[in-house]
Design brief:
EC number: 3.4.19.3
GO molecular function: pyroglutamyl-peptidase activity
Radius of gyration: 16 Å
CATH architecture: 3-Layer(aba) Sandwich
Strand order of the largest sheet: 2-3-1-4-8-5
Active site: 78, 141, 165
Subcellular location: Cytoplasm
CATH topology: Aminopeptidase
CATH superfamily: Peptidase C15, pyroglutamyl peptidase I-like
Order of helices and strands: EHEEHEEEEHHEH
Shape: globular
Protein name: Pyrrolidone-carboxylate peptidase
Helix content: 25-40%
Strand content: 15-25%
Number of strands: 8
Structural class: alpha/beta
Length: 213
């Protein structure tokens, strides 16, 4: 099995992004499965193009994208990408789409086909805060998760795909009051745990990880 783990470059006011920093801490293999890493641009136009080019070149079995979710306490596997770009701030190219569909001919939403509940539970079981998320937002993170679902439907029928949001790291929150953060080595441990689940299980588990609001 060939796995690609991609992480976004810094964006907004941040000069680092744990999503790209953590790539350096991931192993080259999980069990016998090869892992490649890739930094992708935090832009609406280029992010999916860069990712698709890499996917076509190497024919990956699994693509997992990592993104920063400042303000979250936990590592949060994402369940759903919606067909909507609605940016609160411009991307790194200055583009700020408002209420735009990502794919005119695409579904309203695509669900990750990774065992997201099993992943969430496994991360918790190794002592790291984790929560299943049902909203990847409407910025570039949601955009890429949706595009992965679209590419799976259109071009890569055997692809396993998903997205995981991670918190800030401590150096990002020194001037941000009570904003939560997580050490990079713990984030890496959580992601390695997620990858171990991905290579070990096809099916998900049926446990209560939903939300009441």
């Amino acid at each position: 099995m060939k796995i690609l783990v991609a992480g976004f470059e810094p964006f907004g006011e941040d000069i680092v992004n744990p999503a790209s920093e953590v790539l350096q801490l991931l192993p080259k293999t999980i069990q016998t499965h090869k892992i490649d890493t890739l930094e992708i641009p935090t832009t609406f136009n280029e992010s999916s193009k860069v990712l698709e080019q890499e996917m076509k070149r190497y024919q990956y079995d699994v693509v997992l994208v990592i993104g920063q979710a400042g303000g979250r306490f936990e590592i949060t596997p994402e369940r759903i990408g919606i067909n909507l770009d609605d940016a609160r701030i411009p991307d790194n190219n200055g583009k700020q789409p408002i209420d735009e569909r990502i794919q005119e001919g695409g579904a309203s939403a695509y669900f990750s086909n990774l065992p997201v509940k099993r992943i969430t539970k496994a991360i918790r079981d190794v002592g790291i805060p984790a929560r299943l998320s049902h909203s990847a937002g409407t910025f570039v993170c949601n955009h890429i998760l949706y595009q992965l679902g679209y590419m799976h439907e259109q071009y890569f029928p055997n692809l396993k795909f998903g997205f995981i949001h991670i918190p800030y790291i401590p150096e990002q929150v020194i001037q941000k009051g009570e904003t939560p953060s997580m050490f990079l080595d713990l984030i890496a441990k959580g992601l390695i745990t997620a990858l171990e689940v991905i290579v070990s299980y096809e099916d998900d588990i049926k446990i209560a990880l939903g939300e009441i609001h």
